[in-house]
Amino acid sequence: MNGVHTPLVSIILPVWNPRPDWLAEAIESAFHESRCRIEVILVDDGSKEPPETWLSPRDAGRVKVVRIPHRGAGRARNVALQHCNGEFIRFLDGDDLFLPESTSLLVDLARGRANIVTYGSTIVCNESLRPRGRVRSSLRGFIHPQIAQGRFTCTIPAMLIPRHVATEIGFDERLIVQGDWDFVLRVSEAVDFIGTRQPIYLYRRNENSLSSGAGARREAVRSTVLIIKGYIGRHPELHGTRAERRTRAYAQFLIAKLRNPQFPMRNRMFWKAAAADPLRGAVIAASRTAALGLKTIKKLIAKPRLKARYG
Questions:
Q1: What is the secondary structure of 208-259 as a DSSP string?
Q2: Where is 104: in which H helix or E strand?
Q3: What's the pLDDT score for residue 140?
């Protein structure tokens, strides 16, 4: 490239019993770059079948594969960080896709700075990759208070992180769920963030995701308590401030929703949080009431149709 420095970006791809066709699409999407070099580190987190049974010969030849006993995504990502050579890191899940030139865009946004995280927006899709929504943010700077309060909306694969920062921070392997939130929060305590609202990542919403189910919700409650306690413990300057109250309130809102997804207002934790952050409580209550009202209207509309069809 005419003597111009072309940075190497390491793509970390942890997998566990992946769907081969989706994984092949994910790997292919990682290499669609022209202004940076790419290496893909695939960590097989103890899948039932060995990687050679579900990796195509082409992908096996261009991906660095590391196989470990099943310990969860946090452990797999930490192992991958030990095998990376890039100046920057991006994370990718085996059922999602990077948009072409998105990694190059994030590298350009960093402008050679070694202590900044760059990010873009995420398009949320169904399993057929049909768009259903977008996750985006416009925050910049030292944004750890907003991340602790759930006011930063960005997925971790939509970020580009300096490798030395990611390696130093690492993932908390105690967290089965919400490890991304904890990792990004701790990264944001170390470096600035800057973003673009341009879409760079396709998130495939999978009905079989780990994030659904009562067991996962209980684990998320435990993780929320650990993450917020750790954050406030690291920032004694927040004690007694409005920022601390809003941070604790966000955790309480989240726990109320996890314990009662349909009716979080029925959980006393919700009203305790609303006392500390009334505006957010009002917004959540209004949105939930509107969603329930819409659901009721749809049922009422559907009833005559069912009666006409089956009556």
A1: T-TT-SHHHHHHHHHHHHHHHHHHHHH-GGGTTSHHHHHHHHHHHHHHHHHH
A2: helix 102-110
A3: 97
Confidence grade of residue 311 (pLDDT, cut at 50, 70, 90): very low
- Domain range for 264 is 214-295
Residue 188 sits in the same domain as residue 229: no
Residue that terminates a domain, selected from 180, 204, 228:
204
**Environment class of 87 (CB within 10 Å of its CB; exposed 0-12, middle 13-18, buried 19+):** buried
Cα torsion through 265, 268, 269, 272, rounded to 10 = 100
Q: Are residues 133 and 190 in the same domain?
A: yes
- Taking the model in full, what pTM does it have? 0.90
Residue pLDDT, tens place only, 261-296: 888 999 999 999 999 999 998 988 888 787 666 666
Note whether residue 310 is domain-resident. no
User: Beta-strand (E) ranges in the chain?
Assistant: 8-15, 37-45, 63-68, 88-91, 97-98, 116-125, 131-135, 159-162, 192-204
